[in-house]
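This section describes the prediction task in plain terms. A model, or a person checking by hand, is given the sequence of a single protein chain and must write out its three-dimensional structure as a string of tokens. No templates, partner chains or ligands are provided. The sample shown here is typical of the held-out split.
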Amino acid sequence: MYRFSYAEILEDASNECREREKMAFDRAIDLLRAAVSKGAKSSEGAEAISFVQRLWGILIEDLLGPENGLPETLRAELVSIGLWIMKETDLIRQGRSENFSALIDINTMIRDGLK
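The expected answer:
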């Protein structure tokens, strides 16, 4: 029988969470890329905007929670990025922007920063 330390179990759980976060960002990036080719008013555009807003809504809620273990400065910076993304997606939804490339770039950087 194997014995695992609590720290090993927590590390494994943390790795699994990061992997799920990476998968969510991959999905967001794929949807945003599809929206670029089809346009903001397409069903692909609507799906991308909706997914990105839900993703960042969940992330912001988690980042603002007291149980989040990230350093406070990093949490604040990520919340700021998330709020910008929410604002940008609203502008696209309203037809006042088609800045999918900036959303792709930012989400790619965040995904790539997950360790």
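For orientation: Residues 2 and 8 are 12 Å apart (CA to CA).
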